[in-house]
Amino acid sequence: MPQHPARRVVIFTDFPGWHGKRLVKAFEKYQITAQYLSLNDCYFDLTSPTGLHIPTFIDCLPDGVFVRGIAGGTFEQVTVRLGILHALKASGVPIYNDVRAIERTVDKSMTSFLLQRAGIPTPPTIACESREQATQFLQAAFVRGEEVVFKPLFGSQGKRLLRLKAGDNLPDGEVYNHLYYLQKFISCANIDKSGNTLSYHDWRVFVINGKAQAAMLRHSQHWITNRAQGASCRASALDPELIKLAEAASQAIQVDYAGVDIMRDANGQAYVLEVNGVPAWQGLQQVCNADIAQYLVDDFVSRYLSPYTQAHAVL
């Protein structure tokens, strides 16, 4: 029987933690060795046979890449890190999620644009460099009796969000790199008969290869409903409307997998707020029976890695 080289994939992350361990275990089913690396430690090296330096890969490239995170940095640093992913793809290395998908989801303005273009309900949004234009959007919303959420363009996990009400002003432009991403506030409050707000909630739907696989309901005493900001996670049935919206959003952004955040307003209208291209799933895993990491790896292997690898899965 011919000997086949052992398969090796890279999990790009700066914080392997729980997610990394789950992914490594899932790859073991296919006798694939997965190792953690940081994109910070990779670089272009045109003196090497591959044109790249990927730690522990001497004169060769990985068989596949799973992107779990890209560290923040200067514009130049992030550009090179994304360039490494583009170079790997150009060299024939399958990447999950694809680098273009990551770029579209990291940039909230592009995500919003693609959702709106696909006819998917998403809140009215503006992303601009002009403080004057942003102020006009803000004041027009106040005249309509609306509130506005100010978000960092590259933010995640609910950090640095601001809720602006009538009379509020925009924050100092330097704090957000002079980029104003403003979105109509969608209230997802649970209100009692007296009109008092009891809590807030939204849904996270996990989509893999265009199909919704699991969902959770997030509850919080704060209007920011991210688990990282203290929200509690509860199991949620895959509601047909949420499935349709989440799958349509995933298709519009063209991602291998995504965490799609959906809210309903007081009238029951559902909106897609964000499509996360590098979503965490620890909270979701705690409230559902499906092995999310194994689902992800099964999809990655079946669609992007060789038939030999699939045929030798450990059942």
Produce the secondary structure layout.
Layout (H helix, E strand, L loop, with lengths): L6 E6 L4 H12 L3 E6 L5 E2 L7 E2 L10 E4 L7 H16 L4 E2 L2 H8 L1 H10 L7 E4 L2 H13 L4 E4 L10 E3 L15 E5 L4 E3 L5 E12 L2 E10 L11 E4 L4 H14 L3 E8 L5 E7 L5 H6 L4 H13 L2 H5 L4
Helix pairs in contact: 1-8
Report on the architecture of this protein.
This protein is α+β, with helices and mostly antiparallel strands and 315 residues long. The protein has 3 domains: 7-97 and 294-311, 3-Layer(aba) Sandwich (Rossmann fold), CATH 3.40.50.20; 104-121 and 188-277, D-amino Acid Aminotransferase, Chain A, domain 1; 124-185, Dna Ligase, domain 1 (2-Layer Sandwich), CATH 3.30.1490. Helices cover 31% and strands 26% of the residues. It contains 9 helices and 16 strands. It has helices spanning 17-28, 75-90, 99-106, 108-117, 131-143, 240-253, 282-287, 292-304, 307-311; strands at 7-12, 32-37, 43-44, 52-53, 64-67, 95-96, 125-128, 148-151, 162-164, 180-184, 189-191, 197-208, 211-220, 232-235, 257-264, 270-276. The strands form 4 sheets. Strands 11, 12, 13, 14, 15 and 16 form a 6-stranded antiparallel β-sheet that branches. The chain has a 4-stranded parallel β-sheet with strand order 2-1-5-6. It has a 4-stranded antiparallel β-sheet with strand order 7-10-8-9, sandwiched between helices. Helix 1 links the parallel strand 1 and strand 2. Helix 1 (17-28) crosses helix 8 (292-304). The protein is globular, with a radius of gyration of 21 Å. Keywords: ATP-binding, Ligase, Manganese, Metal-binding, Nucleotide-binding. One of its GO terms (molecular function) is ATP binding. One of its GO terms (cellular component) is cytoplasm. This is Alpha-L-glutamate ligase, RimK family. It holds the Pfam family RimK.
